[in-house]
Sequence to fold (281 residues):
Amino acid sequence: MYIIHKQDSASINQSLGMEISLQERKALVQDYCKRHNRNGDTVLGKDLHYFDVFRSKKVIYCFIPKVSSSIWKRELAALVEEDKKIYKGSLKNDLSKFPPQEVQQMLKNYFTFLFVRDPMERVLSAYKNKFLKDNKYFHRRYGRDIIKQYRLNATQQALKTGSGVTFPEFTKYLVKIRSFNEHWAQFDKLCHPCAVNYDFIGRYENLAEDAPYLIKKAGIDDRVSFPPFRPSNTTAEMLHYYSQIPKQRILQMAKIYESDYEMFGYSFPGRLGAIFNSIES
Fold:
């Protein structure tokens, strides 16, 4: 006769809850792809540089910048080292480096996962990281152009360095030019969810619960762990930045990221509701 302890029971219930959540997340993507006649999507001919392959463990991670990807890459480095020992001279950990037939076989047989995030939170995170910090590449590559186009009476210093881009300037650039660097490109453009049947769709907002469960489910818990994590961007901070731009622009941004909202079950306006609920002056 087996006795189920309270701790075991709680663990079983947690696992069941996680599996239900995972199935619901997958169903949302499948429903979106069906409604938009995209069930026949294929990865062939698409950019696969965001798919990290760990052959020794038969795992593929599609990383989306500004969705804890830096942490995941650091923690998954142990698998890269393992592949180096096994494959030595033929180390390939980028799916784009494999022939099409092998790509399709890997996506079918390997454990595939990705993590997503509320689109508006991710855009803000990208802005703070690339334009508020001393990131000379982004200041030169994007900042100078943004300031030139959207800042009246810009100083020569600002035009030269591209530093000091404001959130209103960045978001105006995003909706007008629609130049999508990987840090604010749609999930659909990076990870092709209508073409890949992901085994695990994690959410940034649930990372503390999702990460440990993923590591175990993927069979890499003997090599990988995930550090304690607290999501950034509080509601107050979101409201602080997004209240600086017109509501119409927020709606334009929501339209740009419409597929991300629909596919992954994010609601709009979400934490920006207070902006839209405020009485018009």
Q: What stands out?
A: The mean pLDDT is 92.
